[in-house]
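tool=predict chain=A
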Amino acid sequence: MAKRRKVGNLMALAVLAALTERPMHPYEMASVLRAHGKDEDMKIKWGSLYSVVQSLARHELIEAVESRREGGRPERTVYRITQAGRQELRDWERELISTPERETFRFKAALSVLGVLVPDEAASLLQRRLELLDKQIADQRERLSEHLQQVPRLFLIEEEYELAMREAELAWVRDLLGELTSGSFPDLAAWRTFHADRS
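tool=predict ok
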């Protein structure tokens, strides 16, 4: 079971990891997170960055080390990770890597009420999803291949994981679509009758 964290927003995980590189002010943290593509790896609401930083500081997982003024810009507070923050980061990472969690996905929610569509429309929409997944996977493979020429694999494993998940989804959608179009899907007749009775 997941441990309750003092700061449970996944952006906090990204901020703590970024601060292991060097002390930074929040604007710099945002630049580093964007440059590392963290907004593609996790749901990040950039507007909440300052509140996440304040919360991490309040719980002494990071601490202010100085305030800087660059040119005519407002004063910026520079933060560094504390020993407690390093421990929290490692502990949280161990938990996330070792413990599977049920994650909710929009597609899963849609599948849970698939019966509201007539089977032919469901098949047509799944065909469209299949085509989009095919294109996305091809694009992802190409990007990953290019990145692997410049970046060590260690820093791209989240992209490998996402690609593997999309490939698994593609295979599953292809199988489901095959059952719908071939007529081998169980209870297909009852599904059609359900909609025919409501026409």
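The first strand starts at residue 62 and ends at 68. The longest helix spans residues 119-148.
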